[in-house]
Amino acid sequence: MTLIxxxxxxxxxxxxxxxxxxxxxxxxxxxxxxxxxxxIVTTSFYVGGASFPSINPDAIxxxxxxxxxxxxxxxxxxxxxxxxxxxxxxxxxxxxSLV
Length: 99
Prior knowledge:
The chain is mainly α. It has helices at about 1-20, 25-45, 60-80, 90-95. The chain has two domains: about 1-55; about 60-99. Helices cover about 75% and strands about 0% of the residues.
């Protein structure tokens, strides 16, 4: 289990390294996405200290997580499409204030 999280962490480090240059930024984003998917899938199977894999929580828990992800993704997509490139720094600052 811990090894999987280490793989995700390495993906995040490589993603940051890839984002340091415009020529490698696309690859850095892809590596970051892979790391996040690995972390989310691993965490969703790891429930309450149970051994891997274990799916113990109620289905409503996963439904609520999925609804939150879809709602946040939809809102973020709409905002990102409507914002002009010259307003991108303000958009990034606004998104960071939500974290």
